[in-house]
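Recap from last week: sequence in, structure out.
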Amino acid sequence: MARVALYLQDSHDLRDGLDYARYAEEKGFEAVWQAESRLVRDAIVPMAAYAAVTDKIKIGSGVINNWTRNIGLLAATYLTLDDLAPGRIICGIGAWWDPLAKNVGIDRKKPLTAMKETVQIMRRLLNLERVTFHGEFIHVDGIELDVVHGRREPRNVPLMIGATGDLMMELTGEVADGAVLNYCVAPEYNDKALELLEKGAKKAGRTLAEIDRPQLIVCSVDEDHDKAIETTKMLLCQYMAQQPHIAKASGVSDEVVHEIQSILGWPATKEQINKAKHLVPDFLVEKITASGTPAEARAKVEEYNKRGCTCPILYAAGGNVKLLIDTFAQA
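Predicted structure tokens:
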């Protein structure tokens, strides 16, 4: 694999994440991505920390949402990160999900329009343009990033959309630098995703080859196959309950999802997760994740690469993260 990245969320102490980022850089990983999904750990603080303790590895948000930061603050945030790690920052952004968005007062109406406006204006601001724009969601009058001290130059921050639905995937091909392809999906999921990306790319006079396609892949590695599978089940049951759109995209039956949801609360406790994890069948773990021995995990990740993933982003489900990094080391 010429490219590989690490994905971190909240299943570890934040300072351990700094060690993982440094270790991934040492082992030749291209990037480390930080999650921002549940109300547990934001992406920006860890990204800044990773940037401060590394020298060359790229650092991405995987993914922030486009609803809770106004466009000026959003652009200023990524300019600030780029000041800390010039040329190493990636902005992964997504449309968020319910019920979380709804529960904090966000009405995600017209998500395609909202995302298109966000990406277009964000790009102009990071190019240090002075922007006036009045759309359905973004209204700005003569704003620009106010760089008085520092690099007064356009910033190379790739804008990547974490798309799930068909229309969002097509929009990604049209307006974004790339797609952060979904996790908890089988490799063949990518076939349709690539068709949609290419369709969108053609609208903008581009080709599919111009659209980067890193992909989140849930990954648990252990010399003991069964132990790795068990670790992944704990993660999958939580995501099936809290993000049913991902379960739907993975072909998980409504019956399984509903039974897991009946056990897990919000937020889910460890006791609830341990009670529900047995509902996740082994075949599903093997179908939609790269879990098992090092050799098994490598073989599964290669299936995603063959289906159009340009850079696997290995989502450490838990367990021995350094063994995972060693398993996919490039250096």
